[in-house]
Design goal:
The structure holds 2 protein chains of 2 kinds.
Chain A (H helix, E strand, L loop, with lengths): L7 H18 L7 H35 L4 H18 L11 H37 L10 H20 L17 H48 L2
Helix pairs in contact in A: 1-2, 1-6, 2-3, 3-4, 5-6
Chain B lengths: L6 E3 L6 E3 L20 H4 L4 H6 L4 H18 L13 H22 L11 H11 L6 E7 L5 H17 L3 E6 L4 H16 L10 E5 L3 H10 L1 H4 L26 E6 L2 H11 L8 E5 L4 H9 L7 E4 H11 L13 H38 L2
The chains are: A mainly alpha, B alpha/beta.
Chain lengths: ~230, ~375
């Protein structure tokens, strides 16, 4: 595509994108003012954007609009969150900050309860049950026939689970006076195997992070190449 | 107290008691409430309480241990960071240049060097879920990724969204990230450019916007979507259109699809929304970095996740396998450039690792040879 085929807004966006990307890449040479400028712009723009989204998408439709509805039931329902929000604003003033503690405690308490309840019922119990049942019922995907690979898979899962749990077993006992407390020898052995499983897991996660970063790099480089090609083809 | 640090002598009978004893094990007399010599100095301002406290020798030992631990906490930890080696900057720039030049060459040449990957079994399951959608079926499409990942996520999700729209299902976008609503609009606009079709709201899709409240908000939305998100991102009434009039809970959606780069976000959706689905499928579109952490939800047989497409490779394979064709790819990630970048990066990592091992062996040899000399 030629430069003139883009709209003015696209052209401005492409120029800004090109310059900002180059500025970020300049960090390869050393930490410099261009890189820091981009970081400041990013933080400022992101914060302002989030503030606008929250005002427009949350505060206006879910707090102010019901207040102006004229329906006493609706108004009553939003009075409590409104009061709690006002109290939360008191945290900004040191002398009044204690007034913000009740809504903060409410937020933290509810958040923790929901998160812990979800973790127990949504992850711990289903995953433990699945690990227990894996040996008896598992086939990797629906419709697949059970074979010796499933048995090997289950064995690896069992070994990995037990060994990794052993690695995080931190109870130690003073076995000989004057020596550092240590775990039992058999736990040490299993923990060594657990360390291997953890290393493999971290390796897999690192590979995923690397692949995601490569995708971002290719996308940025392609955008720069397209910008230059459009500019030169004018 | 006796001279031995681990025993205390009874003043009445002279019996040697263990440190933790409060009474003499021989005569039953109270053992002396001893104070460390400088205890008051250690806790200034607490003299009235210290004077009333009875501190056994065992407690004194614990106090001393605690004091030592706190003292260590206050000390700066010396890290074993070796001074930056000469040529480090050159090496960093050289490595980057190699990567940049290879990618630049691949992008300019634009030749398909690497063959496209084939569809994995979990992506096949995902495709079957989309094929099962009937015209007008409401699909909750969660756009929960950071803007920095838009290249990968667009490449990953474009084929799936095109397939959903080709089935004439009705995607409803939602996000628990403030930037998500804008990402969703960019996503569907890019798809419109690729397919040559202008997708319009509210005829073909709906954008509910930003859902606040984290896990609590998500749980509330799962139970009562209409009450929690009454308006769309552009401020219109959300639930008036025919495909959405019957939606009372999350289980009224035909499919829930979560697109994210963050394992914690996906986990929150599985934990909070999963139990409300009542058998309706949950499908994940994941960045390559989140996939290893979330695969157990798919493969454990717990039935919490029914389909998964991950990474650029998953997106490319899905796009190749579908019945529709995209006229152009606006995502900016060509498979060959991406594959070449991964290979070059892996080779550089391997070479760096080998160089590290070589250096280590040489340093050990040098140390041994120095040790041999008198």
């Amino acid at each position: 595509m030629t430069w003139s085929s883009f709209s003015s807004a696209d052209q401005v966006g492409m120029v800004i994108g090109f310059l900002l990307t180059l500025s970020v890449f300049s960090y390869l040479l050393r930490d410099n003012v261009l890189f820091r400028l981009v970081i400041h712009i990013f933080i400022g723009v992101a914060t302002a954007y989030v503030a606008v989204v929250i005002l427009y998408n949350v505060v206006w439709p879910q707090l102010l609009l019901p207040l102006g509805s004229g329906d006493p039931g609706t108004i009553l329902l939003v009075i409590i969150p409104l009061l709690l929000s006002i109290l939360l604003l008191a945290r900004a003033f040191p002398r009044l900050s204690s007034a913000g503690s009740p809504p903060l405690a409410f937020l933290v308490g509810v958040g923790a309860a929901v998160a812990i309840g979800g973790a127990i019922s949504g992850t711990i119990v289903p995953q433990v049950l699945a690990a227990i049942n894996a040996g008896a019922t598992q086939t990797t995907f629906p419709g697949a026939t059970r074979n010796w690979m499933d048995a090997v898979n289950w064995g690896v899962i069992l070994l990995g689970t037990l060994a990794t749990l052993a690695y995080f077993h931190f109870s130690a006992r003073l076995r000989n006076p004057g020596q550092t407390p240590s775990r039992a020898a058999w736990i040490e052995e299993i923990a060594g195997v657990g360390k291997l499983f953890i290393a493999i897991t971290l390796g897999a996660i690192f590979a995923g992070v690397y692949a995601a970063a490569m995708a971002a790099l290719v996308e940025r480089m392609d955008a720069m190449v397209q910008f230059l090609q459009a500019l030169l083809a004018k | 107290m006796s001279d031995e640090d681990d025993q205390v002598t009874c003043a009445e009978c002279g019996f040697e008691n263990p440190l933790e004893a409060e009474r003499c094990q021989n005569c039953g007399a109270d053992l002396p409430a001893a104070f460390a010599e400088n205890l008051l100095a250690q806790v200034p301002g607490q003299e009235p309480f210290i004077n009333k406290a009875r501190i056994t020798p065992a407690q004194q030992v614990h106090l001393r241990l605690l004091g030592e631990m706190l003292a260590v906490e206050g000390q700066a930890l010396l890290l074993g960071i070796s001074p930056r080696r000469a040529g480090y900057t050159t090496l960093r720039i050289g490595t980057s240049l190699v990567l940049f030049l290879v990618l630049l060459f691949s992008l300019l040449a634009n030749k398909p060097v690497f063959t496209h990957p084939s569809l994995t079994s979990e992506a096949l399951e995902a495709r079957q879920l989309v094929y099962a959608l009937t015209p007008g079926a409401p699909v909750l499409f969660v756009v929960d990724y950071q803007p920095g990942f838009s290249g990968e996520m667009t490449r990953l999700g474009q084929g799936v969204l095109a397939h959903i729209l080709a089935q004439r299902a009705y995607p409803v976008f939602l996000s628990t990230h403030p930037t998500g609503p804008a990402q969703a609009e960019v996503f569907i606009t890019d798809l419109g450019i690729s397919t040559g079709i202008a997708y319009l709201t509210p005829d073909q899709y709906l954008n509910l916007g930003y859902l606040p409240g984290g896990p609590s908000g998500l749980l509330s939305f799962s139970q009562a979507p209409q009450q929690v998100m009454p308006l769309t991102a552009d401020g219109n009434s959300a639930w008036q259109d025919p495909p959405l009039q019957t939606i009372q809970s999350l289980s009224d959606f035909s499919l829930v699809l979560v697109m994210t780069e963050d394992p914690d976000t996906a986990r929150t959706w599985i934990e909070q929304a999963g139990p409300q689905l009542q058998g309706k499928p949950l499908m994940l579109l994941l960045s390559a970095q989140a996939e290893p952490s979330l695969r157990p939800y798919l493969e454990s047989g717990s039935g919490q996740v029914q389909g998964m497409v991950s990474g650029v490779s998953g997106g490319v394979a899905y796009q190749d396998s579908a019945v529709f064709t995209l006229q152009s790819d606006t995502s900016g990630i060509t498979w060959s450039a991406y594959s070449l970048g991964l290979w070059v990066g892996a080779i550089l990592l391997l070479l760096a690792g080998l160089y590290g091992v070589f250096r280590l062996v040489r340093e050990q040899e040098n140390e041994l040879s120095r040790g041999d000399k008198p």
